[in-house]
Amino acid sequence: MLFSELGLGPDVLRAIEDKGYTQPTPIQEQAIPCVLQRRDVLGCAQTGTGKTASFTLPMIDILASGRARARMPRSLILEPTRELAAQVAESFEIYGKYHKLSMALLIGGETFTEQVKKLDRGVDVLIATPGRLIDLFERGNIMLNDIKVFVIDEADRMLDMGFIPDIERIVSKLPKNRQTLFFSATMPPEIRRLADAFLTEPLEISVAPPASPAETVTQAMVVVHEMDKRKALRHLLQTEDVKNAFIFCNRKRDIAVLQKSLERHGFNAGALHGDMVQSKRTETLERFKQGEITLLVCSDVAARGIDVQGLSHVFNFDVPLTPDDYVHRIGRTGRAGKQGRAFMLATPDDTKLVNAITRLIKREIPMIAIDGLETAELSEEESASRSRGRGGRGNKSEPRGRGGRDAAREERAPREERAPREERAARDERAPREDRQPREERVARDERTVREDRQPRESLAAAEARRNNDPRRDRERDRRRRRDEDEDDVPVIGFGDHMPAFMLRSARPRRASDTAGDAAQEG
Ligand code: AMP
């Protein structure tokens, strides 16, 4: 089939031709005519299938007639992360270059002033992350009752990030007679329920993932002891023909440490994660895309769904906490028919996580050894993993046979899904009051909490105690002590060389007036 058979206008077709696309992808073939007929669409498709163009191309044609009024955008696209929002905005610029549509990108981490000015001038296309949109709505900068086309992209990702209550609030402000296009990589029951609530007689489209990473990505795994991971990574970086690579860590604080370590060893490395200010995130990603940075040490939140053409390698410095994340991580390489290579560094404590991955991808990941490094072994019995105990997940003994998303969902605090709908709605109404800090902080916090902080404190303590009693941990400690290694890899104990200033300050003797003050406060 040709693009010209889908009913798109000549200007859009010209932009597609300029972009060099010769044929629509399956989702474009099915979705575009249907969107042009103003029907709702429920698309089960992930990034890499061409889904962005499947909604942006027809939207450009639909919005070509008509004019936007101040503060009343005519279409709204919700994206879970700032990077994805920026990527969609880029697509609009490319495909809409022969149109005069105005577009605003509302994402956290950037100043309100410019965004508000744009809204005041009137926008045809509004692309936003849920948090910033609600903020601007609450400030009265935006009205949503003229939205004609509404897109929810990456709905399952929104669920993972705890954005569903925000989305329900946003939808409640939209006009009933809108067109809704709803996309999700997977369709768990919660997402299906949302789709049923938001869509009217949608056309359901389900397309296969681009190509299973198993076919285009050569995978390998190195099992080493925890303290050898950086050395193992450096060895791989030196011996592999790495053009550019994502290096995934599970925890944000490890990202900075690893990036600095790589820089010290002469590698050209940057960092990307959800706690960084947006300007820095955008700049780093751009520098990576331009090839100024070769290695990007990153978190799942920062890198999922990001389309970097021709990524040669992915390194899992940590075994991902859910098997789904493994597939998403390695799927950053080997895209668009190109070959990619993915390596994972595992430690004996990661056995359970590794097994969950191999169950999901239905194949073993070939193990390789690294010259000069002692190869460790995955433990026979599925122990609780290091990552889960240290900061990742709850304390469940159930294997995660049903795949990461289901398991992850269960382990998250039952923030939105378990409460009945009415209760959630009531709580949503309360939300603005309890969240008095600026919205973007809340969003940043939401992004931060996605992976790391959702388990109850007791489980952390229990996991810590369990690990302290683990004989393998003692052996690991001894080995660490004995090791003659490069300084960079020595774990810092206590404050290391740094003595915090507060410990050097002499304690002020407590005066009678302090006691009187305390008493007055208590009274
Ligand atoms: P998406 O799934 O929207 O993230 O798109 C993935 C990649 O496919 C992007 O780099 C698009 O530029 C590219 N793409 C989208 N549609 C087509 C097409 N019809 N032909 C070739 N490439 C495409």
What does this structure look like?
The chain has 523 residues and is an alpha/beta fold. It folds into two domains: 3-206, P-loop containing nucleotide triphosphate hydrolases (Rossmann fold, 3-Layer(aba) Sandwich); 217-380, Rossmann fold. It contains 24 helices and 13 strands. It has a seven-stranded parallel sheet with strand order 3-4-2-5-6-1-7, sandwiched between helices. Strands 8-13-12-9-11-10 form a six-stranded parallel sheet, with helices on both faces. The protein is globular, with a radius of gyration of 25 Å. 43% of the residues are buried. Bound molecules: adenosine monophosphate (AMP).
Quick recap of the structure?
The chain is of the alpha/beta class and 523 residues long. It folds into two domains: 204 residues, P-loop containing nucleotide triphosphate hydrolases (Rossmann fold, 3-Layer(aba) Sandwich), CATH 3.40.50; 164 residues, P-loop containing nucleotide triphosphate hydrolases (Rossmann fold), CATH 3.40.50.300.
